Amino acid sequence: MARRKKIYEGKAKILYEGPEPGTIVQYFKDDATAFNAQKKATIEGKGVLNNRLSEFFMTGLNNIGVPTHFIKRLNMREQLCRACEIIPLEIIVRNYAAGSLATRLGLEEGMALPRPIVEYCYKDDKLGDPMVTEEHIAAFGWASQQDMDDILALSLRVNDFLSGVMMAVGIRLVDFKIEIGRVYEGDFQRLVVADEISPDSCRLWDIETGQKLDKDVFRRDLGNLTDAYSEVAKRLGVLQQSPASVTKPTLIN
Ligand code: TMP
């Protein structure tokens, strides 16, 4: 078989050219990074879990009419997606104070915010993804006013959907990050949710105990990351088997 063409390799995923024009294949690696890749590790099973979890969230969004780039999962680590032009913004939606917001404004982590707060960061690893305002986005032409209206509406729909899905399994959606892409259809462009939605890009806390079930487990050395992600997958009914039994064949006597 001919070798696939690699389009891009990021910190947690590799993108390959897809089988048809306008498609790409997204491969989920086991690599975890934090603090703009100053902290790195390979965590066996993470890619498999994020592939499944992102499939679950993106499928749910597609089903309620929130367009995403996701087409279908291909195998344990890969999914077929529509090729899109990523808008160079990380869109963060917050329901509770945590992470950089808590630090920046001196808020106690876990404080309920009066309303969801949407923040934008300029996607540039060399600069450490600095936070920007709509003024910067308009002035530098990263997105139009119409795009920004659509991005805000999409982000809040994603927030409502994810909050509800997580609450139903006893998990609080504290905050999350999404990326948005442009898909061209003839003369029209449409915005779609792209990249991934997984515990790498969300803060998920058990409602009862406050236990962290997201990448903060790795960022803050709180325990085993795949155990945390498996717990999320199990509660959502996404993965019945543990990732260890998925990645390692077991001998059957
Ligand atoms: P923050 O509190 O560190 O700004 O993170 C806000 C949310 O965005 C949190 O759910 C983690 C997610 N996030 C990413 O997905 N990628 C990143 O590079 C960063 C810094 C945060």
Describe this structure in words.
The structure is a single chain. The protein is α+β, with helices and mostly antiparallel strands and 253 residues long. The protein has a domain at 85-206: 2-Layer Sandwich (D-amino Acid Aminotransferase, Chain A, domain 1), CATH 3.30.470.20. Helix content is 30%, strand content 32%. The protein contains 7 helices and 14 strands. The strands form 3 sheets. Strands 8, 9, 10, 11, 12, 13 and 14 form a 7-stranded antiparallel beta sheet that branches. A 5-stranded antiparallel beta sheet has the order 1-2-3-7-6, covered by helices on one side. A two-stranded antiparallel sheet has the order 4-5. α1 runs parallel beside α6. The longest helix has 23 residues, at 145-167. It is globular and about 65 Å long. The relative contact order is 0.16. The mean pLDDT is 95. The structure holds thymidine-5'-phosphate (TMP). Thymidine-5'-phosphate binds at residues 92, 98-101, 129, 175-177, 201-203.
